[in-house]
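hey so u asked for the seq, here:
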Amino acid sequence: MLSIIIPTLNEKDYLPFILASIKKQTFQDYEIIVADANSGDKTRQIAKEQGCLLVQGGLPSVGRNRGAEAAKGDLLLFLDADIILPPDFLEKILREFETSQLDIASCFISALSDKRIDDILYGFGNLYYATNQHIKPQAPGYCILIKKKIHQTINGFNEEIKIAEDWDYISRASRKGKFRFLKNTKIFMSMRRLERDGRTSVAIQRILGTMHVFLFGGIKSDVLFKYYRFGNYPERALKPIADRYTKFSNQLSNKWFED
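ran it, structure tokens below
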């Protein structure tokens, strides 16, 4: 069985779409675990209504660890709430994971946007990860597939790290098993962080964050890097972004599942 783990905090506008895309998968031997950090909206209600196992979460590293503790599967798939999976995504990543004899893997992304600049930015991100996997393995937390025994061997995510906890996790895990980025499919990811913080600002933050990780490791203090705000945005500021996400998600759904 595959255990899919999604950390959440106030994700009522996004969680229904990822859950719908999971339930439409060609591969169906999975469980969905939502690790929620005390959402004040309908996130928990949505998770329960959709048949997910609901566990107590916190920051992403905490939620992922609590989800893994509750998982029944031998394989763990950590996903973020604001992504959409193509209908054959699970089937393809599991096949490539097995045929390539991997222990840990991640995947590349496509922008859930109609702006060329977003395709370019995510393209650079994909290129960075593809090149660096052979030098200093890193992977974003929005998609990490790992054998449960490897997760347990490294004691999961470091819950003291507030930023780049996913890079630290992959760095430690890749010393215990074979890690690669999967080539045969991509996920679609929202642009909400780029839209709410600004593309230039996010690019600068990512560069500074990468430099910090290379020099000092994961970021445990939010004094230097205050931009990471897990679910901590006023709803009025996020609604236009969520509306655009809904539009593009529906377009994808119509494209994939039209009669």
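The chain is about 45% helix and 20% strand. The mean pLDDT is 86.
lmk if thats what u needed
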